[in-house]
Automatic annotation (TrEMBL):
Pfam families per the UniProt record, alphabetical: HD, KH_1, RNase_Y_N
Coiled coil segments of this chain: 49-143
One GO cellular component, as annotated: membrane
Domain HD: 326-419
Organism the protein comes from: Candidatus Wildermuthbacteria bacterium RIFCSPHIGHO2_02_FULL_47_17
GO BP: mRNA catabolic process
UniProt-listed Gene3D superfamilies: Hypothetical protein af1432 (1.10.3210.10), K Homology domain, type 1 (3.30.1370.10)
Alphabetical UniProt keywords: Coiled coil, Endonuclease, Hydrolase, Membrane, Nuclease, RNA-binding, Transmembrane, Transmembrane helix
Protein name listed in UniProt: Ribonuclease Y
Enzyme class, first EC level, given as a word: hydrolase
Origin: domain of life: Bacteria
């Protein structure tokens, strides 16, 4: 028991001694480590100070280099500015010297001008004095002397002068005529176009003879409906497989022809269908007019026209003048005017546009009062056409004086186109004009809805409005129209007046 206590006490004592020894050992090691770390830190601090001093020295050296470079550049810039300033001063001095020299020269020049004026005045005075003395000595004035000299020369060489003047006139006229022939010949040969035109009749080919009976219809209702709606005369005779459409208005004939062709193709030929087809064809004709106008403008190479004016131009496709298609005639005048203008150096664009539009008034001359030239001027002004073009077109019938070269060229081109052999037929034009007058007279009566001249003007067929004209007054209306025709119009033979009232 005691031994165990002793051993236990001895263990505690050993443990205490070991702990004390360990503590002192750790303190010793710690002091050694602290001394080593402090040395390292001191070494690092010393090294850092050395590096910092090196960096500072390098920075100071770099700053000194930059300062030296900047100082050098500033000195160079100052020297350059000084040189520029000196050069500018020299130039200003030179400029001042030149200005002074110019002022001196100007002063000298003015003095010399004044001296020259004085000398000129003195010379004129001396000349006047000399002329006065000569006139006093000779007894005649200068003008009288000049006149006498010319008269003496004229008397001495009268025949030679007259002969020379006539020779020069003849040679000049011959040259002008030759040049004019060359220009016109070149313009004519430069453009050529066919001028075929149906005058008063059109034909429709039939697939068989049986169609004629269907066109006539029961008791003639179909053919009467077609004639009433289109204003033409349908002629069905012994000619095989052919129907003739007669009428002086080309638009009506074309509407009737297309309508009849569509009815034959459709097969349903009866009054209601006829009215429907005619209405559709009338719309197609309006489109054809627009297409014809656009084709004419494209052919002429003209741009910038109002679309409504182009459509109005297309109406001339169905208009004739002395048997000549007005649209084809206008295109011909357009190209001839352009060729003539190019030959003599005039404005080609104005000449061509004036030539194309010179007869535009004929598209409306039966609807508006006035000559086709006056109507054309109003139409072109309405659609904003240039003043030069209006001046070029308005003189082609000499109603207005030609104000420009282009106006003369359009007038010449119009005459060339009209004078071409076979271009115009005066008799046919007069005949068509008389038919138009006949229709206009009948349409002027109150209650008349439509009036068609048929059978070459031997019949005037009148359709009245049933609400305005009754059966009792229908005969009186026909008699009044017949009396007016007899009084105002002159026609060979008799004219049949047919008045129709349909409920």
């Amino acid at each position: 028991m005691n031994i165990q206590v002793i051993l236990l006490i001895a263990g505690f004592i050993s443990l205490a001694i070991g702990s004390i020894l360990g503590y002192f050992a750790r303190q010793t090691v710690a002091r050694k480590q602290a001394g080593t770390l402090e040395e390292k830190i001191q070494k690092r601090v010393t090294q850092a100070r050395g590096e910092a001093e090196t960096i500072i020295e390098k920075a100071q050296e770099k700053a000194r280099e930059i300062t030296a470079t900047a100082t050098k550049e500033i000195s160079e810039r100052r020297g350059e500015l000084l040189r520029v300033e000196q050069l500018t001063l020299k130039r200003e001095e030179a400029l001042d010297r030149k200005i002074s020299e110019l002022e001196r020269n100007e002063k000298i020049f003015r003095q010399r001008v004044e001296e020259f004026k004085k000398i000129k005045t003195d010379v004129e005075e001396l000349r006047a004095q000399a002329e006065n003395k000569i006139e006093q000595v000779a007894g005649i004035t200068r003008e009288e002397a000049k006149k006498e000299i010319f008269e003496n020369v004229e008397r001495a060489h009268d025949k030679e002068l007259v002969a020379k003047i006539r020779q020069l006139e003849a040679e000049g006229l011959a040259r002008f005529e030759q040049r004019a022939r060359e220009v016109i010949a070149f313009a004519i040969q430069k453009y050529s176009a066919p001028q075929a035109q149906e005058l008063t009749t059109s034909t429709v080919n039939l697939p068989s003879e049986d169609i004629k009976g269907r066109i006539i219809g029961k008791e003639g209702r179909n053919i009467r409906a077609l004639e009433r709606l289109t204003g033409v005369e349908i002629i069905i005779d012994e000619t095989p497989d052919t129907v003739v459409i007669s009428g002086f208005d080309a638009v009506r004939r074309q509407i009737a022809k297309l309508s009849l062709e569509k009815l034959i193709q459709d097969g349903r030929i009866q009054p209601a269908r006829i009215e429907e087809i005619v209405s559709k064809v009338q719309e197609e004709i309006i489109k054809q007019m627009k297409d014809a106008g656009e084709a004419a403008v494209y052919d002429a190479g003209i741009v910038g026209l109002d679309p409504r004016l182009i459509q109005l131009l297309g109406r001339l496709k169905f208009r004739t003048s002395y048997g000549q298609s007005v649209l084809l005639h206008s295109l011909e005048v357009c190209h001839l005017s352009g060729a003539l203008a190019a030959e003599i150096g005039a404005n080609v664009a104005v000449a061509k546009k004036g030539g194309l539009l010179h007869d535009i008034g004929k598209a409306l001359d039966h609807q508006v009062e006035g000559s086709h030239v006056e109507i054309g001027i109003r139409v072109l002004e309405k659609f904003g056409v240039e003043k030069d073009v209006i001046n070029a077109m308005k003189s082609h019938h000499e109603e207005y004086p030609a104000e420009t070269v282009e106006a003369v060229l359009v007038q010449s081109a119009d005459a060339i186109s009209a004078a071409r052999p076979g271009a115009r037929k005066d008799t046919v034009e007069n005949y068509l004009r008389r038919l138009g007058e006949l229709e206009a007279l009948a349409s002027s009566f109150a209650g008349v809805e439509k009036a068609w001249a048929l059978q070459a003007g031997r019949e005037i067929r009148i359709f009245v409005r049933p609400e305005a004209v009754d059966d009792l007054s229908l005969h009186k209306l026909a008699r009044n129209i017949a009396d007016r025709i007899q009084e105002e119009l002159k026609y060979p033979g008799e004219i049949k007046v047919t008045a129709i009232r349909e409920n």
